[in-house]
Amino acid sequence: MHTPVTIIGAGLGGLTLARVLHVHGIPAEVYEAESSPMARMQGGMLDIHDYNGQIAVEAAGLMAEFRGLVLEGREAMRILDRDGSVLFEKADDGTGGRPEVQRGELRQLLLDALPEGTGRWGRKATGARTLDDGRHEVTFADGGTVVTSLLVGADGAWSRVRPLLTDAVPEYAGTAFVETYLYEADTRHPEAAKAVGGGSMFSNGPTPGDAINAHRETGDTLHTYVQLSRPLEWFEALDLTDAAPIAREFDGWAPELLALITDGDTPPVLRVHYALPVGRRWSRVPGVTLVGDAAHLTAPNGEGANLAMLDGAELGQALAAHPDDVEAALAEYEQAMFVRAETPTDEAALLESLFGGEPPQHLLDLIAEQERLVY
Questions:
Q1: Whole-angstrom Cα distance, residue 372 to residue 347?
Q2: For the chain, which end, N or C, has fewer CB atoms within 10 Å of the first or last residue's CB respectively?
Q3: Residue 318 above 50 pLDDT?
Q4: 180 - beta bridge partners?
Q5: What is the pTM for the complete model shown?
Q6: 3-class DSSP state for residue 336?
Q7: b/e for 111-145, b at 16 or more Cβ within 10 A?
Q8: What kind and span of H or E run contains 233?
Q9: Is 280 exposed, middle or buried (0-12, 13-18, 19+ CB in 10 A)?
Q10: Interval 186-207: pLDDT, tens
Q11: Which of 141, 154, 181 is nearest to 29 (CA)?
Q12: What is the rounded distance in angstroms from the CA atom of residue 306 to the CA atom of residue 217?
């Protein structure tokens, strides 16, 4: 196969696809809206799982380099009650299957493993159409276009490639994150740092869907994800110039937990959660497919980045396995991807991987309550 694969989106899914294609000698071009690889922060930490994300890293031939990015000790986890008391704690003993890395460093690893010129920056896709000859044309905000016989949408929740395959659009999932950062936390915010510990901290509220969660990132940076379950209109009216209204939603909680919200060193950032209908498939359209959130967007569940990378890896491997039959490769990839996207998270397996054989009862109760939520 010698025709370059055109990939829209330089996130983890698109870059994993490009890297796996490169490993197999297949050229690719990646078009990205951002002006450069360092145009913005690339999010916080990711736990890369041994049953999906690490499989993709292995397919990309980058496992040794990936291991060099792992932040030791960050698989430690604690669950706190609203008064700050520890309900459950698990140390990172080095045997876990979900090592933590910084998203930006993982993305840069993939970029560095691609031939120079693979990424085309500042190319924001605004639409796509199928031409009379069966090829596909992508239009960019700068007025330019690209025509390709093999197009992959790796362009996330609001994909411009998706309409070539399906009329499905993301819908509000019922929750949102408000993110804050505390820098030099061990010296400047010692009580909050002590509450979070060395890895991840979770503290769930009495209202299902409400929680204060935080990760210790590189050094002593604390990245907090305040999750709230509210009508979309509530978030649209939220004034993000002041964290106090958000903290009031957790009235009565321990001061060290509220400090993760009120003492942030950055303005709060709102990230509303959207999802595509579960189980929605599309009929095979020659020469085009989707990976990651473009294909199966869900509210955050710890699997999104891992699944996007696995999508990219499996698509690249399928194209390499069928160099003379692109349609067979796309059909093979999509069938596996559809099944994977429709398979509910195995809560029992997740609890086993996180807690061993004795997950805390209050967490089991929380999961049961969450399952009764209708988003």
A1: 14
A2: C
A3: yes
A4: 224
A5: 0.92
A6: helix
A7: bebbeeebbbeebbbeebeeeeeebbebbbeeeee
A8: helix 232-236
A9: middle
A10: 999 999 999 999 999 999 988 8
A11: 154
A12: 19
